[in-house]
Amino acid sequence: MGEERVADLTLSQLKGLIAQVVDERLPNGQKQHLKKDGRSTQEILESIASNRIERLPGEPTLCEMIIEERNQWRQDM
């Protein structure tokens, strides 16, 4: 497919070209991106879950805090 124009490709040829480019780029990029620290995807997800900050009972939700902040800001106007 050296000097062919994309407009001259059939739909099948275009799909093949797209698949080829994805195959060339995605696996290498993903491996480098996801494996920088040597952890598996499952280990990363477990780390995220164990380090999640959860609010205590009775604490306001994020939405409630934003509404309160907005209301205070409006009172100062």
Descriptive report:
The protein has 77 residues and is mainly α. Helix content is 62%, strand content 0%. The chain is built from three helices and no strands.
Topology (SSEs and partners):
Blueprint: H1 11-34, H2 41-50, H3 62-75
Question: What's a quick, concise take on this entry?
Answer:
It is built from 3 helices and no strands.
User: Count of DSSP E strands?
Assistant: 0
What average pLDDT do the residues reach? 83
Helix tally equals 3
Note the beta-strand portion.
Answer: under 5%
Q: Which keywords apply here?
A:
single chain, about 80 residues, mainly alpha, 3 helices, about 60% helix
